């Protein structure tokens, strides 16, 4: 321990003498001559091609050549064309953000459309399945499901209004894009510009053109969606009307008759297109009784008892007729017996007309457009009771 303590004291004395100068002015190391020691170079120093770390952002390099990054142009040193290009760039960025927002809104509406369609079709499928196996007339459960389906269809109509409003907003963005594109092209002719300004204008013009392409695509998609959904809602309204009649009677009919009708195609021979007329044939007579004379009726409904069940047979016959001739029109004739006194004949004719109007309402409830059915009345000496005849023209 004594030896170790002595060595530590000696070390402390050496450190004190080496770090602090002597107050006497003499060399604290005495007369000894310091001997230099050579230190071998490290591996990094012996490397002939050393790897230099990149300078930190914003730091300046001294003694290593010019810096590669150029300082941004100060606003005070910019030309008038350059400042205008910067202002228009901000407008283009705002326009791009607006178009992105419109696209997100359209995708959101489409997602809501898909969910509404799933709920609506599930309700319609449940109602049709229940009617297919048979149910009671006016089933309240089916009526409640029909009301829910009608509410879902109302949501479709509301979404169509939202898409129409969104289409108007995109049209406003299209007008803004056209203005920016015209302003960018007009800036080329301004004096006092440098080459960098024209390069900035060219880049800006490309950005506006890309935005215009996105706007046009968005407008086309919105237009197609609005047309498709409007046609879908109109078609399903007719189907719901027919389904309501089926629920009331407790038996399944099918889709609305109006959905089976298509627009008449112009004849190939160039003659005028007429409903129910073949190309080149004579014009159809405007008198329903004249058109029905000599023709076999498509459906004969005899009102020999109260409330006869004729809806299913009527729907099937009209549906098949429309499948064969999509442009067909119909004549509904109220036929009353011509026997008896004048008062009896008049009373029977009045009842037959009222019964024909009931059949007319049934046809419209099944989805057949009212403008494709004409009403008329006649008397017959062979009829035993009031009848309603349906003819095809």
Commentary on this structure:
α3 runs parallel beside α5 (195-249). α8 (342-365) links the parallel β2 (330-337) and β3 (373-380). The longest helix is centred in the middle third of the chain and has 55 residues, at 195-249. The protein folds into 2 domains: 80-251, Up-down Bundle (Methane Monooxygenase Hydroxylase, Chain G, domain 1); 288-392, 60s Ribosomal Protein L30, Chain: A. The chain is built from 8 helices and 4 strands. With 393 residues, it is of the alpha+beta class. Strands 1-4-2-3 form a 4-stranded mixed β-sheet. Mean pLDDT is 75; it is low at 1-24, 30-34, 52-77 and 261-288. It has helices at residues 2-19, 43-46, 80-133, 140-186, 195-249, 288-292, 311-324, 342-365; strands at residues 299-302, 330-337, 373-380, 387-392.
What is shown here, in short?
The protein has helices spanning 2-19, 43-46, 80-133, 140-186, 195-249, 288-292, 311-324, 342-365, and strands at residues 299-302, 330-337, 373-380, 387-392. The protein is α+β, with helices and mostly antiparallel strands and 393 residues long. Strands 1-4-2-3 form a four-stranded mixed beta sheet.
């Amino acid at each position: 321990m004594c030896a170790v303590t002595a060595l530590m004291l000696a070390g402390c004395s050496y450190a004190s003498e080496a770090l602090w100068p002597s107050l006497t002015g003499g060399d604290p190391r005495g007369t000894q001559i310091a001997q230099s020691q050579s230190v071998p170079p490290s591996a990094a120093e012996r490397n002939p091609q050393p790897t230099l770390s990149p300078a930190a952002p914003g730091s300046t390099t001294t003694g290593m050549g010019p810096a590669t990054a150029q300082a941004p142009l100060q606003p005070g040193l910019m030309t008038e064309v350059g400042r205008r290009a910067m202002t228009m760039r901000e407008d283009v960025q705002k326009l791009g953000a607006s178009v992105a927002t419109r696209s997100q809104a359209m995708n959101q509406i489409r997602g809501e459309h898909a969910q509404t369609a799933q709920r609506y079709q599930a309700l319609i499928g449940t109602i049709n399945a229940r009617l297919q196996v048979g149910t009671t007339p006016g089933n309240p459960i089916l009526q409640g499901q029909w009301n829910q389906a009608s509410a879902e269809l109302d949501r479709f109509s509301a979404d169509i209004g939202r898409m129409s409003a969104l289409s108007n907003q995109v049209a406003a963005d299209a007008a803004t894009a056209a203005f920016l594109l015209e302003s960018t092209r007009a800036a080329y002719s301004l004096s006092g510009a440098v080459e960098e300004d024209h390069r900035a204008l060219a880049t800006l013009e490309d950005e506006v053109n890309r935005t215009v392409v996105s706007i046009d695509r968005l407008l086309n998609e919105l237009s197609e969606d609005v047309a498709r959904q409007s046609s879908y809602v109109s078609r399903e309204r007719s189907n719901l009307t027919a389904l309501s009649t089926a629920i009331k009677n407790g038996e399944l009919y099918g889709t609305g008759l109006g959905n089976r009708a298509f627009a008449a195609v112009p004849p190939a021979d160039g003659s005028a297109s007429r409903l129910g007329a073949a190309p080149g044939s004579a014009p159809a007579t405007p008198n329903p009784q004249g058109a029905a004379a000599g023709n076999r009726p498509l459906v004969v409904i005899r009102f020999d008892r109260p409330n006869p069940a004729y809806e299913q047979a009527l729907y099937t016959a009209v549906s098949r007729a429309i499948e064969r001739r999509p442009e067909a029109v119909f004549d509904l004739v109220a036929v009353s017996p011509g026997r008896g006194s004048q008062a009896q004949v008049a009373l029977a004719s009045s009842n037959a007309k009222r019964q024909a109007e009931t059949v007319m309402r049934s046809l419209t409830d099944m989805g057949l457009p009212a403008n494709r059915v004409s009403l008329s009345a006649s008397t017959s000496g062979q009829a035993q009771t009031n009848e309603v005849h349906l003819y095809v023209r």
